[in-house]
Amino acid sequence: MSDQKMPVVLLHAFPLSSAMWQPQVDALGNEYRIITPDLPGFGSSPVRTASIAQMADDVAAQIHEPVVLGGLSMGGYVALAYARKYPLKGLILADTKAEADVATGKANRDKMIAFAESHTAREVIDSMMPKMATTPAAVEQVRALASKQSPAGIVHAVRAMRDRPDSSDVLPMIRVPTLVIVGSDDQLTPLPVAQSLAGRITGARLEVIPGAGHISNLENPAAFTEALHRFLRSLSQDVARVICRSAGNTSDTEV
Ligand code: MLT
Asked: Does the beta carbon of 112 lie inside 6 Å of ligand 1?
């Protein structure tokens, strides 16, 4: 029955929309209740000014129970802001980082804002593309998804990312099972960044997606989905063990 499925919320990257999660929804939607909100200004969500923390509050307003929450890149920034304030059952941080922008990063955000104010969304994504996606299929999907977004939404999101606070202090407070994912060829948040992120979260597991750049769920959907599925299955098994123990069975036998 659908409401007995484990709810899993996945937050999209910039400048895409919830539609980027289609491969994972297709593969895992029968087993899990996968919820993919559009962040403000993207997909069906109206353009408005919202900080990364406000985006997390928006997500919290749409769900009414502790969930497994995942985010890729900008979605990961929002997931960490969420983890600061709201209870979770599990956390997935893909191709993302905890640190705020450094001064040069903020200056680059200002340049991107100026560019987006006088160009189309398609021109914006093409200027970013080499760092976003590498396989021809993913390049095409990222371009198609980003081209549908409004330049105004893009400008608001770039401001929100530029002004986001450092989330490093949240990492030692995370007490739920956590999966860190990174594309093997991610140039924006490369492997050492993912290793550092995972290293600061108790018990976090790190999965490297082979042959994948930054938008790793589209670059190598099969491997990404498999890593996600492995993690979600391990959470279900943890729940099953607790049920097993509370039913009087003290062994670790999975049910
Ligand atoms: C993203 O993929 O969401 C962006 O690259 C994140 C960023 O620009 O910091």
From this structure: no
